[in-house]
Amino acid sequence: MIHCAIRSLRVPYGFTLCNRFLSPVLPQTRLLSDTVHKSKLLQLYSTTRQLRKPLVSPKWSTTSRITATSSLQLAHCRLFHTSQPRKAIPPLVWLILRPFANLAAVLFGRIFRKAWKKLPQEKRDKIILRLKRNRSKVLGAAGALTFGIFLYVLAHLEEAPYSKRKRFILFSRQDMRNLCEQAEQEILSTSASKVLPHRHPLSKTIVRVMAQIMESNHQAIIDSGVTSWNIYVLDEPEISNAMVLPNGTVFVFSGIADTCSSDDQLGAILAHEVAHVLLNHQAETLSKEHLSSFIFLFIITAIWAVLPDFAAFLSHIFASQTSQIFISLPFSRLMESEADAVGLNLAAKACLDVREASVFWAKMALREELGCEEAPMEILSSHPSHESRQKAIDELIPDALKLRESCKCKKLSPADPRMKFGLHKLRLKEAESKGCLSCKSIFSHYDI
Ligand SMILES: [Zn+2]
């Protein structure tokens, strides 16, 4: 299996891991309680690696464990809850059907227009007259369809954890996990040679920070139902990014080492990715896409039924881009902001310095400001601008600091890293005005 052949890193946290290896070592309740120490987990993790056994048992059910552990109360910081999984059409079926449905809508609209044109004027007038006479029935049918869609949406509404906003979810977490297993294999089949070994210093750092986040937020991790978290660090120095799949597989690109100047900044990025999984954002995005695609089918059909081919083609593109700008992208930005907010709390509970999250986005914003990176228009972007993210995080930091304090973390240095970065920024701007700015220096360590 590719999963075993490549050099993957497995975060020492997961039900199966506990079930198979840790239970004999520690009592179960103790194992999943607050008292488990990170070093113990890491020690046990290295033991499991030596055993070279798969950490995931597909036959092992998590249901009983979730029930058994859900009563364990954390002293503080229990923020997340998840809804029960529901039966739904697998997302893969939707993904396959969608392009065909779009094509069918175009063809149907076009065939209707051609057939209409071929009809003698007398017959067309008759049909129009009949429709006018039965106006109430036509409107009733349209109303029934709209009401049906409304009821369908209503039946699939659920409350998002943490933000408590109502959202439309069509797919269960399990559906999403099944879907992304395939995506994971595809990514790995093309990037297997780029996966850094677990002995690599960057891999070690990322696993250590991730373990800290996992351990400190274990109840949220349990609630998410993700039983195994994998990290792949890909040797891509030009890419400074990370991404996550709904099954808890995190891909981190090695360029992140240049942009994050501390564990706290790295932790902010990783916590953001974990937050996407806890919030089940992938299922929400896919559900919304399917709903909007379904509604869009009616619009496409109407466009191709009324307009001549070229005009219909242009209108189709225009409608598609408009829905992208006014529906999909704002929705994506909302998800990102939510993941930032929840990620900040995860980082706070992991005793990271949450003020560094603001510094990270300030650096990214400065990079754009100084012309080291192109700044896309926010309205055309799937993510909020770096500046918007920094401002939003700054607003959340006081609460995150209180949360951190309530988790009995070590006191933070009174020297606010945001102030330090402010001075660094002034120096960089001065260097820019003298024409001797190096873009790399934006991310360099900024001790004063
Ligand atoms: Zn994100």
Describe what this molecule looks like in 3D.
- With 448 residues, the chain is mainly α.
- Helices cover 63% and strands 5% of the residues.
- The chain has helices at 2-5, 15-22, 28-31, 38-51, 63-70, 91-118, 121-133, 135-155, 173-191, 201-216, 218-224, 256-259, 263-278, 281-306, 309-349, 355-369, 386-406, 417-433, and strands at residues 9-10, 157-159, 166-168, 230-234, 242-244, 249-253.
- The strands form 2 sheets. The chain has a 4-stranded mixed β-sheet with strand order 1-4-6-5, with helices on one face. A two-stranded antiparallel sheet has the order 2-3.
- Helix 6 (91-118) packs parallel to helix 14, helix 13 (263-278) crosses helix 16 and helix 15 runs parallel beside helix 17 (386-406).
- It is elongated, with a radius of gyration of 26 Å.
- The two termini are 50 Å apart.
- Bound molecules: zinc ion.
- It comes from Frankliniella occidentalis.
- Its cofactor is Zn(2+).
- InterPro entries: Mito/Outer_Membr_Metalloprot, Peptidase_M48.
Q: Segments where pLDDT lies below 50 for 5+ residues?
A: 1-87
Beta-strand level of the residues, as a percent range?
under 5%
Q: Quickly count the helices.
A: 18
Which percent bin holds the helix content? 55-70%
**N→C terminal distance:** 50 Å
- Multimer state: single chain
Overall 3D shape: elongated
Largest sheet: 4 strands, mixed
Structural class: mainly alpha
What value does the average pLDDT take?
79
Compute the number of strand runs.
6
H/E element sequence:
HEHHHHHHHEEHHHEEEHHHHHHH
Give, in spatial order, the strands making up the sheet with the most strands.
Answer: 1-4-6-5
